[in-house]
Amino acid sequence: MTGDLFAALRAPTIEHIADGATWLRAYAEDDAAALIEAIAQVTAQAPFRQMQTPGGYTMSVAMSNCGELGWVTDRRGYRYQREDPLSQQPWPEMPAIFLALAERAAAAAGFHNFLPDACLINRYTPGARMSLHQDKNERDMSQPIVSVSLGLPATFLFGGAGRADKPLRMRLESGDVVVWGGPARLRFHGVDTLAQGAHALTGDCRYNITFRKAG
Ligand code: MD3
Ligand code: FE
């Protein structure tokens, strides 16, 4: 049977990738349709937008946020803030299904009582990429980041402590969750250019949602 409508569900597996990094393959597969619906609701209020880097480039990835704090970038720099700069209103509330998944996934990786106050939603269309960077705008680096991939697969680049360290390549598929904590928390990482494709739930795009304790 090869039709998309009857695509087999992947079996969830737990894989230790590196100190502090745990790959929960297919962990969110059962929730994928509901998560995508929740993304649609959040972004009806806080639309996807391509932000400017401090250096003046326009990011190829379109972003939005929900939760108390949202990650933004513009000519003034990278930061978290309570208001959506487009509307000057607070970011949409974090959907209950987001919070529940983030808490459950963090606990499965050994990080108990994870209570994210920020959720960044990234949308990749073919050609979009994210260059190697560190996530260091959060206050407490002892808290992990939980990432959930939905839709088209992507090649994730998992680097080292220095920008020049040769990254490992990992193919992240829809429903995969990765928990990044401990010594993995400050490693460089990025996403290779998204290839064209068609996914039953998202069409021609990939979403990545990351849960963070930012404040
Ligand atoms: C490893 N997003 O939004 S998620 C980001 O697929 C970001 O959209 C990528 O990097 C994406 O900042 C990757 C996986 C990820 C997220 C945070 C990390 C990996 C990480 C923090 C530290 C180490
Ligand atoms: Fe990142």
Task: Give a structural overview.
The chain is mainly β and 215 residues long. The chain has one domain (13-212): Alpha-ketoglutarate-dependent dioxygenase AlkB-like (Jelly Rolls), CATH 2.60.120.590. The chain is 13% helix and 32% strand. It is built from 2 helices and 13 strands, in the order ββαβββαββββββββ. It has a 7-stranded antiparallel beta sheet with strand order 1-2-11-8-13-6-3, covered by helices on one side. A 4-stranded antiparallel beta sheet has the order 7-12-9-10, with no helix packed on it. The protein has a two-stranded antiparallel ribbon with strand order 4-5. The longest helix has 14 residues, at 32-45. The termini are far apart. The mean pLDDT is 96. Residues 133, 135, 189 line the site of fe (iii) ion. Keywords: Dioxygenase, Iron, Metal-binding, Oxidoreductase. GO terms for molecular function: dioxygenase activity. Its cofactor is Fe(2+).
Fold topology:
Elements: E1 13-18, E2 21-25, H1 32-45, E3 62-66, E4 70-74, E5 77-81, H2 96-108, E6 118-124, E7 130-133, E8 145-151, E9 154-158, E10 168-172, E11 177-180, E12 189-191, E13 206-212
Antiparallel strand pairs: 1-2, 2-11, 3-6, 4-5, 6-13, 7-12, 8-11, 8-13, 9-10, 9-12
Bound molecules: N-(carboxycarbonyl)-S-(naphthalen-2-ylmethyl)-L-cysteine (MD3) and fe (iii) ion.
Residues 120, 122, 130, 135, 145, 147, 178, 180, 184-185, 187, 189, 191, 208, 210 line the site of N-(carboxycarbonyl)-S-(naphthalen-2-ylmethyl)-L-cysteine.
